[in-house]
Amino acid sequence: MANELAQHHNPHTDEHDPTNVTNPEHAQHHIVTPVQYCMVFGALLVGTAITVLAAEFDLGVFNPIVALAIACTKAVIVILFFMHVKYQSRLIKMTVGAGFFTFLILITMTLSDYISRAWGQW
Amino acid sequence: MDNAAITLNEPLMPHEEAVSGRDPHGHVMLPQHRHHFETEEQQREAGSFGMWLFLLTEIMFFGGMFFAYLLYRNWYNPAFVVASNQLNVVLGAINTAVLITSGFFMALGVYAAEVRNRSMLVWMLILTSVFGCIFLGVKYFEYKEKYEKHHIPGVNFNISEFVNPPIDAKTHKPDQPAIAPDMAQKTQIFFFLYFGMTGMHALHMIIGLGLLVWLIWRANRGDFSFGYVAPIENFGLYWHFVDIVWLFLFPLLYLINRHPLK
Hints:
The structure holds 2 protein chains of 2 kinds.
Chain A (H helix, E strand, L loop, with lengths): L1 H8 L1 H5 L18 H22 L6 H21 L7 H27 L6
Helix pairs in contact in A: 3-4
Chain B lengths: L3 H5 L12 E2 L5 E2 L10 H36 L1 H8 L4 H26 L3 H31 L11 H4 L17 H5 L1 H35 L8 H25 L8
Antiparallel strand pairs in B: 1-2
Helix pairs in contact in B: 2-8, 2-9, 3-8, 4-5, 4-9, 5-8, 8-9
């Protein structure tokens, strides 16, 4: 009965596992479809075009900010869909988030050192 | 469901046949299933977790170089601006699209392994490799141009193009502002970072292509056509990570200051 319920909620896993061997617990496992991959692919190509276009305009200090914002958006799309993080467990999501957060801490602390080292001496 | 169902599947490795069967709890054991994991899903999760921990060390590795770039770009901005304009934006943009395409086929490869389609998996991995090779081929011609113009940092580095910019044939004006010789020397730092960062990126791709050859061979043998997706999935994570590095390298190195050229 429990198995039937699990199967009902999880058609993807069992469709390709008719002998019920791979995943007897019927744990959640999501397969991203090719249609989704095509949409992600299109979004990334559009993002690349926008980056090149945006660089041709003089936006002052916002040029690198816009470029980085687009790059970050593309990276998040890749991480969520190509790398399946959107469909992973909380452990994986926490791990990915913690990694980027630690990287930001390292950048912030190192930069604040460089900025403040000669403070008041100019 | 009995053990006969398992023997229909190609065993992962001949010496592991003895592992398959039923464990004391009555669970069916697949050849790739290690005994210290309760379930296939737990093993898979542990594998993904380990792969992500490795990728975090890679973030720190490339992050150090991105930080060096950030600092020197702020210190020697005029040098970075003129040096960046030496890079070929068209080739860079094409390479970005090529790499995204390669990643797209890699993602489809993971899908093919999930739905246990052997020939689709093999072809997707081959396409992933082909586009990876195209990327490296374009990179070769970009590096070659830098070599010919003496824009590789070191004793043979030539700053003349930055101190005396070439006169444009149409406008009869220099195609970019001249900078002082001491600042022009700092273009070496830009090219040092350019070669360092794109070089480490290319090295990661070369390692990835080597792994792809191995995976194609194993996929063709049928190793990943019965629900054993982990090697394909984890390699996919690595390949996509290398893509992400390039998504940042392209705007930061090629597109620093395009608009003054107009």
